[in-house]
Design brief:
Number of helices: 6
Oligomer: single chain
Low-confidence stretches: none
Mean pLDDT: 90
Largest sheet: none
């Protein structure tokens, strides 16, 4: 039943998608919103479940070169742990400081940590991306993101 690595990963992703969907169906309803806050999480959960099913039925056999790619070095594990710490700090400070500042700082900090040295480009991308996502959610979808210390 689970003979290939794709099938094993697909089962893990399907379980994760099911748990994510269960949590997204428990989000509170907002009667004044045109598009409710649970639309995006439900859509992402269903999309993850759909791709898990596609991955399960994928017939592609893994080559030796692909098996070698699965080995992760100690440096890469440390990078992943560091990015996980950045994400946890982002989540902890999101409500306090606000979406705009925290998202811009998170993108800029992660880019810098991962080795992107074009600071001006990183700054422009982090600020513009944060502003676009904030505007999309707050003004187009009518879903309020945490304003934090910025009086918006």
């Amino acid at each position: 039943m689970l003979s290939r690595i794709n099938q094993k990963i697909a089962v893990i992703l399907a379980i994760l998608a099911g748990f994510y969907l269960l949590l997204s169906f428990n989000l509170p309803k907002y009667p004044n919103a045109i598009i409710d806050a649970d639309v995006v999480p439900k859509g992402l959960g269903l999309l993850l479940l759909f791709f898990a099913v596609l991955l399960y039925f994928d017939k592609k056999e893994e080559t030796e070169a692909e098996k070698l790619k699965r080995t992760i070095t100690k440096e890469n594990v440390l990078l992943l742990v560091a990015v996980l710490v950045f994400i946890l700090i982002y989540i902890f400070l999101l409500e306090i400081i606000g979406f705009l500042i925290m998202t811009a700082l998170f993108i800029f900090g992660c880019s810098l940590f991962l080795g992107y040295r074009k600071h001006v480009t990183n700054a422009i991308v982090s600020v513009v991306f944060s502003l676009v996502i904030y505007g999309l959610f707050n003004y187009l979808l009518k879903i309020n993101l945490p304003a934090g210390i910025i009086p918006l």
